[in-house]
Automatic annotation (TrEMBL):
Organism per entry: Zostera marina
Pfam family, one: FPL
InterPro entries from the UniProt entry: ARM-type_fold, CLEC16A/TT9, CLEC16A/TT9_N
Stated name of the protein: FPL domain-containing protein
Domain FPL: 42-192
GO CC terms of this entry: Golgi apparatus
An example Gene Ontology biological process: vacuolar transport
Length: 824
């Protein structure tokens, strides 16, 4: 029994430390009677040791003299009480974290007591105890340096044979509790950053190095989980939250891989890279890129996203070069043998290739002859270097181009994202990009200029000669990696293409992009991504756009003009010019940006992005925005590829109104947006009745008025003392009102009422963005009015008034659009 009256009066004194140590050494058994006093003793000792470390070195001298670390281990061994183990781990964590003296840390680490605590068999069925234990290990790792790390290892024959701090910690690397996983990662990074040569050898040697393969295998499971969430979103839109969680988890893992590599230990970088290639990329992601294979474990869109994510975050030359090199390999080499069909064909691509014949003339320019099975085949695959009788022989690079031309939206966007990510990768040698056909033209000129300066070119014309580039450029880095893979994996990685021709591959990429811009079954966002890539390849509108490409662009532009004029007659005609000006500016900014504006993870939500199929105003607004974006992109590309400079569109408010609407003039309405309470003349108004609430019918004067690109349906209340004058009570947009007289009641006029503006400043998709609630979209319900007039003629007059004003409104919008875009 300990008696508190025997304790020294000064709590922070050496006498208090002696007293607490003496009480600790007297303990022979730990039970319910003394556990609380023992817990208090452990707390006091840690507090006193930390105090002494900062104020009086005699405290720690006493701590060493009495071998209190040994007493801690002794107490742990004789205790069967969970609270003692918890307190001891907390005591050690606090001491280690707060001791500033290197001498003190060196002492604590310099005997086997610390390793005894690390290796002790705690009962981790108690989750709180495990958390304290991991915090204890992390505290130790925070004090590691070149001098202290050697104190925690066991060696034999100058080789480390045991490192409990590391091996015990990584046992919990995949624990279900996120905070434990984070702590283990922080601990491992602290160890890697010490950069001790012998420790690194131990970590990189089997079986300890199995940690890295387990990391990648665990990451692979997360990739499969992500793909499952992507699949589920086609059935349940609420799965978007699942995708976001999976994406965050995947990116966290990749950033950890990146941090491990950034620690500067080459062997660890090699382990991460090799395991990612052999356990994830080669067996799972690359096989999934082949066209529509039912047995793929993940979808092509998920694989494309994951490859982009890996390249963006895990930035190593070897990994980026390996991924780029595999794109030259035939897709058949990534198909499990059990899936290969007897005739060697594994894909429906066979049928696509039957109608395509490519040839190269003797001058190196590409001559294309298309043979289509029917007129609708103009967008058939046009990205094969030679005619293939078996589509399984095409390279993965060509599969990406196929997806751009013929794939669904996720595949097209994912392929564009992957090519853009490779193009921006600082880890890739320029010869790799050149071989893929995506080396930016400015870098080509820089390379050729350098060659000319050092005397490798004999003629000034060679500087800008694509012919020289195709004939003399040798992809040294690419060849080296192809040879490396062939030596390491055998014929598995032999190149699937007859040769690497940068000029020819570049033309294939350009051709695929041009055909992408003609597609009508993908969204504007996909086309804008293609526009950005094209501007990187041809920033100065050079002569690689041939007459066939220009013809395709002009035809697609003509189609977009027709679509534009159709939208002018649509529900949102009154804001069309505003949207057009805004999207012109946005498109110009997007394709001239230094990097794509859309994150690759948009690939995962493309299925969810599909347009609303109903006829609501929200759906119509979304379709209009997308069509205008497509029109703007095609128009800008046409200007750019024709050698012109993209102009800035003047805002529509600066354009002169082409006519003054007599009805608006008679009403005395000189504002674009009429507000409730505004006075108005009612000479042309038609009296009517409407009930906005059940049983509450109200009398109004009905007017339909357009002014410039603004049009409104107005319900006004006439003054009792001033006939033909009144004030506006309700105003609704004229666009989309679709007047219709009731079939059974000829005095009734039905009108559709839409919101006055598109939501969220012209970006309707923000209302369907990932993880957002549906509350906002519920606000955008279509309104419907039924107006009752006093006789049939009044009803017909009101309908005629609405139709006339809609016609005037559309005519004004069309006139302004033609003037704005020089479409006269």
């Amino acid at each position: 029994m300990w008696f508190s009256f025997l304790r020294p009066k000064d709590r922070l004194s050496l006498e208090e430390l002696r007293y607490q140590t003496d009480q600790l050494q007297k303990v022979q058994v730990v039970d319910e009677n003394n556990k609380d006093d023992l817990i208090e003793a452990l707390r006091s000792i840690s507090e006193l040791v930390i105090y002494g470390d900062q104020h009086d070195p005699n405290f720690f001298e006493f701590f060493m003299e009495k071998q209190i670390m040994g007493e801690f281990v002794h107490i742990l061994k004789i205790s069967r009480t969970m609270s003692i183990a918890l307190q001891l781990l907390q005591t050690m964590s606090i001491m280690i974290q707060n001791l500033a003296s290197e001498h003190a840390i060196y002492y604590i680490f310099s005997n086997e007591h610390i390793n005894s605590l690390i290796s002790y068999s705690f009962d981790f069925r108690n989750e709180e105890l495990l958390s304290y234990y991991i915090s204890f290990l992390r505290a130790i790792s925070g004090k590691l340096n070149n001098n202290t790390i050697s104190l925690l290892v066991k060696t034999a024959n100058d080789e480390i044979i045991s490192f409990p701090l590391y091996t015990e910690a990584i046992r919990y690397a995949f624990h279900q509790e996120n905070m434990i996983r984070i702590a283990v990662r922080a601990l491992t990074l602290n160890i890697y950053h010490v950069a001790d040569e012998n420790v690194n050898k131990f970590i990189s040697r089997s079986p300890v190095s199995d940690y890295f393969s387990k990391l990648v295998l665990n990451f692979t499971k997360k990739c499969l989980n992500l793909d499952q969430c992507v699949t589920e979103i086609t059935k349940n839109s609420d799965s978007s939250a699942c995708i976001l969680t999976a994406v965050d988890d995947i990116e966290d893992n990749l950033y950890y891989f990146s941090d491990v590599i950034s620690a500067g230990v080459p062997e660890l970088g090699r382990l991460i890279t090799d395991n990612m290639l052999e356990l994830l990329i080669f067996p799972l992601l690359l096989p999934s890129l082949k066209e529509h294979h039912d047995d793929s474990k993940v979808s092509a869109s998920s694989s494309l996203y994951l490859l982009c994510c890996i390249l963006r975050i895990v930035k190593t030359k070897d990994l980026a070069s390996s991924i780029a090199t595999t794109l030259f390999c035939s897709q058949e080499y990534f198909i499990p043998k059990s899936e290969v069909k007897p005739n060697g064909c594994t894909s429906n691509l066979d049928a696509e290739y039957k109608y395509i014949d490519y040839s190269i003339d003797i001058n190196g320019s590409k001559k294309t002859e298309m043979k289509y099975s029917n007129s609708s085949s103009i967008l058939s695959l046009a990205c094969s270097s030679i005619q293939r009788c078996k589509a399984s022989q095409i390279s993965l690079r060509e599969v990406l181009l196929y997806y751009i031309v013929c794939g669904n939206e996720p595949e097209a966007f994912g392929s564009l994202s992957l090519l853009s990510t490779l193009l921006q990768s600082k880890e890739l040698d320029e010869s790799m990009l050149d071989g893929l056909g995506i080396l930016p033209r400015r870098k080509q000129h820089k390379k050729l200029l350098l060659q000319a300066l050092v005397g490798e070119g004999s003629d000034e014309e060679q500087l800008f000669s694509s012919e020289k580039n195709s004939k003399e450029c040798v992809n040294t880095e690419l060849d080296r990696y192809l040879q490396k893979f062939k030596a390491q994996y055998g014929s598995l990685f032999c190149c699937g293409e007859s040769g690497v021709s940068p000029h020819y591959h570049r033309h294939q990429v350009l051709d695929a992009l041009m055909r992408l811009f003609c597609r009508s079954n993908v969204s504007a966002e996909v086309l804008w991504a293609g526009g950005w890539l094209l501007r990187q390849l041809l920033p100065h509108s050079e002569a690689q756009i041939n007459s066939n490409h220009m013809k395709l662009l002009k035809e697609s532009h003509e189609d977009s003009i027709s679509v534009l004029f159709d939208e002018i007659k649509g529900s949102w005609c009154d804001i069309l010019i505003t949207v057009l000006v805004e999207e012109w500016k946005n498109c110009k900014k997007a394709i001239e940006a230094s990097s794509p504006q859309k994150d690759p993870n948009r690939t995962l939500f493309s299925y969810h992005r599909c347009f609303i199929k109903d006829e609501s105003f929200l759906a119509a607004g979304e379709r209009m925005c997308d069509k205008l974006k497509i029109f703007v992109l095609r128009y800008q590309l046409l200007i750019f590829t024709s050698g012109g400079t993209l102009p800035d569109l003047a805002h529509h408010s600066s354009l002169v109104i082409s006519h003054i609407n007599p009805r608006a003039k008679v009403a005395g309405l000189d504002v674009l947006v009429p507000k409730s309470g505004t006075e108005i003349k009612l000479d042309d108004a038609v009296p009517c009745k409407i009930a906005f609430e059940r049983g509450k019918e109200r009398h109004f004067s009905f007017l339909a008025i357009s002014r410039g690109t603004s049009g409104w349906i107005i319900l006004a209340e006439e003054y009792t003392d001033r006939p033909k004058y009144g004030i506006i009570r309700v105003a609704a947009p004229l666009g989309g009102s679709s007047p219709k007289i009731d079939d059974k009641h000829p005095k009734w006029l039905h009108l559709r009422i839409r919101p006055s503006t598109l939501p969220s400043t012209l970006d309707i998709r923000k209302f369907q963005s990932i993880g957002k609630t549906k509350a906002k979209t519920k606000m955008l319900v279509d309104g419907r009015w039924t107006l009752a007039f006093y006789d049939d003629e009044m009803c017909k007059s009101a309908e005629s008034m609405v139709l006339q004003e809609i016609h005037l409104l559309c005519s004004e919008v069309e006139a302004r659009a033609r003037s704005l875009l020089n479409l006269n």
